Amino acid sequence: MTTQAKVLLTGIAVFLIAIAAFMLIGTNSGKAPGSAQPEQASSDPQAPVARTGLADSSDKVRLNLAEGGKALIGETGEIVLTLDIEPGWHVNANPASMEFLIPTVAKSSAGGQSLDIPTEYPRGRVSDIVLGDTALEVYDDGASIRLLPDEKQTAALKEAGKLDMTVRVQACSDEGVCLAPADLPVALNLDDIKPQ
User: Fold this and answer.
1) What percent of the chain has pLDDT over 70?
2) Residue 112 belongs to a domain with what CATH number?
3) CB neighbours (10 Å) of residue 116?
4) What is the pTM (predicted TM-score) of this model?
């Protein structure tokens, strides 16, 4: 694919995102325009809070800690983040199917310091959406991302007492209309976790 074609496709994608955002603001019945979900560390749904600006992916996707935040059992363990995606929507897989698409990416930090915790992404579902000759791979509702800290990282996390995580997603409808990407935050309070 030539550079000119990539630029054209990127421009079209940005234009479609803007149109979708304006359309969603007008058709978002029952919700305040631009509402977002607050930071949450359980699978219990929480009420939206008012947000100003255009619609973004946080309007369609929420992030939950598996098992209500019970993670890091024993000396090492995995932390499971589950995507709660509204029906009719999906997010791009990691790696993204095309260079210009925004993949789902998890990042973590403790005590203000970025941590490079090994992360295991699920295999994407091959969707019916095709760009050029490429069928896009996506994640649907319930997709789980696993963070796999080693013993040294687990000890550092327990010392810090809290792990902050952010997952960057770009939500797209099953018809191929994408919203602006969003960073979904969630925190794991390690002081509340008792090893078994």
Assistant:
1) 66
2) 2.60.40.1250
3) 8
4) 0.68
